[in-house]
Design a protein that fits this description.
This protein is of the alpha+beta class. The protein has one domain: Alpha-Beta Complex (Molybdopterin biosynthesis moea protein, domain 2), CATH 3.90.105. The protein has 3 helices and 3 strands. Strands 1-3-2 form a 3-stranded antiparallel beta sheet. Strand 2 and strand 3 form a beta hairpin. The longest helix has 10 residues. It is globular and about 45 Å long.
Length: 67
């Protein structure tokens, strides 16, 4: 089975490193439902899809005003 990069499941630590936050921050966001950042529960483990992280980043990217 070949899983594309955007479908690969990342650990909370890997996802936190990509976003530049601590893993505990992602845990708080998930429990408080603070942000719309989908995650997958695999037993007691939490996983994130790369494409969901990229979409999260894209939604929060602020463009430069003016021209």
């Amino acid at each position: 089975m070949d899983i594309s990069t955007d479908e690969r499941l990342l650990t909370r630590e890997e996802a936190a490193a990509i976003l530049g936050v601590r893993p505990q921050t992602l845990a708080v966001w998930a429990s408080a439902q603070r942000y719309d950042l989908p995650f997958i529960k695999v037993g007691r483990c939490v996983r994130y899809r790369m494409r969901d992280l990229q979409a999260f980043i894209d939604r929060r990217t602020v463009g430069q005003a003016g021209g």
